[in-house]
């Protein structure tokens, strides 16, 4: 059982990395966000389409990435 959970943990970790890399950028460029030149850098806007899907997948995969090691630790006692 622990070996299966370890495999799932590895898969979730790789999927989380892929999803984070595929997310669209929030700013035009990194220099503008560091210098503060962009007034609308983090403007409130609703996510739609792929942006919303990637955000939800990131939250779900991140939660799993934190929960699975706790389950493994409880099962290994």
Notes on the protein architecture:
69% of the residues lie in helices and 0% in strands. With 77 residues, it is mainly α. It has one domain. α1 runs antiparallel to α3. The two termini are 13 Å apart. The relative contact order is 0.19. The mean pLDDT is 84.
- The H-and-E topology, N to C, reads as HHH
Structural Rg? 17 Å
What number of domains?
A: 1
Shape: elongated
Mean pLDDT: 84
Beta content comes to under 5%
Count the E strands: 0
Q: How far do the termini sit from each other?
A: 13 Å
Q: What is the helical fraction, as a range of percent?
A: 55-70%
Which class do the helix and strand fractions yield?
A: mainly alpha
Please report the number of helical segments.
3
Could you list the spans in which at least 5 consecutive residues all have pLDDT below 50? none
Give the biggest sheet: none
Record keyword descriptors for this entry:
77 residues; elongated; 3 helices; mainly alpha; single chain
Provide a brief overview of the structure.
By secondary structure, the protein is mostly helical. It is built from 3 helices and no strands. It has helices at residues 2-22, 30-35, 50-75.
Task: Summarize the helices and strands and which ones pair or pack.
Layout: H1 2-22, H2 30-35, H3 50-75
């Amino acid at each position: 059982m622990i070996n299966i959970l370890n495999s799932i943990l590895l898969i979730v970790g790789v999927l989380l990395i892929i999803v984070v890399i595929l997310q669209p950028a929030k700013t035009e460029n990194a220099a503008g966000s560091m210098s503060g030149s962009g007034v609308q850098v983090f403007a409130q806007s609703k996510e739609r389409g792929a942006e919303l899907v990637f955000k939800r997948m990131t939250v779900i995969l991140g939660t799993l990435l934190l929960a699975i090691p706790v389950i493994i630790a409880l099962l290994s006692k």
